[in-house]
Each structure stands twice: as C-alpha cells, then as structure tokens.
Write a structure and sequence with these properties.
With 134 residues, this protein is mainly alpha-helical. The chain contains two helices and two strands.
Length: 134
C-alpha cells in the first residue's frame, strides 16, 4: 500500500512539473564553463528533473544492495548454526546413550553386590537353626 502511494505522489509531481514546464517555453541563455548557449526553458526543467530522478534511482539502489549482502551473510551464518546444532544433537544423543549404558552397568553392579551380600549372609547361617556363625 505504501508503494502505491509513492507511485501516485510521483505521478502527481510529474504532472505538476510537466504543466509548469509547458507554461515556460521561453528561450533562456544557459551559462556553463566553456561558454553560453540559448536553450528552451522546458528542456532545462525536463533535464533537471531527469538528472534528479537518476540520482535518486542510483542512491535508491544502494540500500537494496546492502540488504541483499546482509541477507546472504545471515543465511550463511544460519547454515553454520544449523550444522553446529545438528552436530550437537548427534553428540547429545551419543552422550545420552553412553549415560544410559553407564547407568545400567551401575545398576547391575549394585544388584550383583546385593546378591553377593545375600549369598554371604546365607552362607554364614547354620542350616538347622538359622543362627549366624562368625
């Protein structure tokens, strides 16, 4: 919507400038460094508007170019971060698997220690009366 208003305003300004230029058809002297020539005022006005439009267009292209370069840089940075994230996810999965394995081994050792204590405790009991011999 904003760009439509800019176009409409630009067209109205161009129309106003054309009307002013048409009413100024007199021939005027144009002084420049090497001499002087006589030119119609409508040509001078039209040339000034054309040069001004070209200058605005050139400076208007700088910002999109800067934004394009910034976008490319950010996309590259994003790809690097995604690759790093994927690597970290793989490493996290490996660490989680190793932790689970260590936890199972620790649990097995605990169960083995408990079974060994139970076996040692049963070996110290007298088979007839259940008294512990020491």
């Amino acid at each position: 919507m904003k760009s439509q208003w800019i176009i409409v305003c630009g067209l109205l300004l161009a129309l106003l400038t054309a009307i002013v230029a048409v009413f100024n058809t007199d021939v005027v002297p144009l002084n420049y460094i090497l001499g002087e020539i006589e030119v119609s005022l409508i040509i001078i006005i039209s040339s000034a508007i054309l040069v001004g439009g070209l200058i605005v267009a050139v400076f208007g292209m700088v910002r999109p170019y800067q934004l394009k370069k910034e976008n490319e840089r950010l996309e590259s940075h994003n790809r690097e971060l995604l690759a790093k994230n994927e690597d970290l996810q793989v490493r996290f999965s490996e660490t989680q698997a190793a932790y689970s394995l260590m936890k199972k081994e620790k649990q097995k050792e605990t169960e083995d220690d408990a079974a060994t204590k139970n076996n040692n405790g049963a070996a110290n009991e007298h088979p007839r009366n259940g008294l512990i011999l020491e």
